[in-house]
Known about the structure:
By secondary structure, the chain is of the alpha+beta class. It has two domains: about 20-120; about 125-280, Thrombin, subunit H, CATH 2.40.10. Helix content is about 30%, strand content about 25%. The chain has two helices and twelve strands. The chain has helices at about 20-40, 45-115, and strands at about 125-135, 145, 160, 165-175, 180, 190-195, 200-205, 215-220, 230-235, 245-255, 260-270, 275-280. The strands form two sheets. The chain has a six-stranded antiparallel barrel with strand order 1-2-5-4-3-12. A hairpin with a 4-residue loop joins strand 4 (about 165-175) and strand 5. The radius of gyration is 42 Å and the shape is elongated.
Amino acid sequence: MPLGTLDRSAPSFLRQGPSPLSRLALYSALALFLMVADARFRVTEPLRKAVATALYPQQWLMLQPVEFANRGAGYFQSLQEAQVGTDAARRQMARMAVRAGETDELLRENAQLRELLGLRERLETPTRAAQVLYDTPDPYTRRVMIDRGQLSGVEPGSPVMDAGGVLGQVTRVYPMQSEVTLLVDRDQAIPVLNLRTGARSVAYGDPGMVHGGGMELRFTPGNADVQEGDMLTTSGVDGIYPPGLPVARVQRVERRADSTFARIYCEPLARINGARHVMVLSPPRPEVVGPPEPAAPAPAPGKAARK
């Protein structure tokens, strides 16, 4: 056999090199070192930026079909919502136009009836905006302080209301502040009118009800026509609250056989807890009617004027 054809390499069992376990340990340590170095020292941040920059065009091209589909779906959805909103706005405008026409007709009829019956026009009540400062520290009363007082023209007995309805009444007036007693206070009472039946009654404060207090219609006969959900407004018979202001809604009616009167619990429409901005109404003043003018004396009968 020629010498050039002989395998002069060492046998495999004599070859020297790292074992697979050593390689695994080395690569694991290297990977751990790179992760720690990247997390602490940002050593791979330039490489990451370069790779991201190189891959951005491909990512942009791959996202274009998805973006196109989303834009198309959003366009058609927006178009449908716009059409629905336009139809709803047109229906609302039509209803408002009908109500405006009915309101104008009712105002004309009201003016004609008042002129026919000789009734005076309802006076507009002056109002003043105020802000609730804090609740009084007395645990036995439900009162708040507002930032309007005598210098702002606030008078004792002025009604106070928020966006929901009547909140209370001014009971004490200071130069810069005023104390308002809420309707849920046990010493407060307000004449109310049931809009459904037209019946008048008196609502008293009931601070023991849930959710910070409520109101109760007392001395109401058990067979009275009062239902849950009835709306109560001011009747105006006391001369303090103008008529027609929203007060409360009937929440629960309890009729018992052992009692002549029914227990009627009401929920105030105003925000009793947490009211921030209120309106102070000036108490209505009764009109002063002067004495009638004396009639001219009639000429005595039988006496004619001499020429």
